[in-house]
Specification:
7% of the residues lie in helices and 65% in strands. By secondary structure, it is mainly beta. The chain contains one helix and eight strands; from the N terminus they run H-E-E-E-E-E-E-E-E. It has a single domain, classed as Porin (Beta Barrel).
Length: 163
Amino acid sequence: MAYLVRSLLTVALVGCATSSELGLLQHAPGDGVGGSLTGHWDLGMMPDRIIAAGLDVRGDVATSGDRFAFGASVLGGLPIGRYRLLARGGVWHAAFSNTSERTIVPTFELAGYVPWNDHPTDPRHPELGRSSAGLVVGVREDLDAAAYTTVLVGIALFMVPGY
């Protein structure tokens, strides 16, 4: 049984992903607009069907308050032709904030991934691995004391190392 668990973990943790996003955030239509910068670092299965977990860091500057936060999330993705549909769910905690908010804030994201540089595994050189870099466009909802929506654009890199 231990061998099976170790084997599944080894297969699941062969890839890594990193992404960075800039976004515009707003509590409700007509409210002031703010900005958000987010970074994600994930480990898991990728780059076609994606199941990964990782750590996040973000900074928000808005009329309703500023924050610097850390968190954790799970990323999932499905291929649609050469593109990917991405979904992320997680939580974050503001280490520094000048506004009233929850201690732990759930966050949900739905995005599309458009690769501009896709390097599949070369059967003649499997030691080189596989990688894909591209554009991420999506929307994120944070369920804070006052929920707010972020429209985001960013870049992502998915890598599966060779042997």
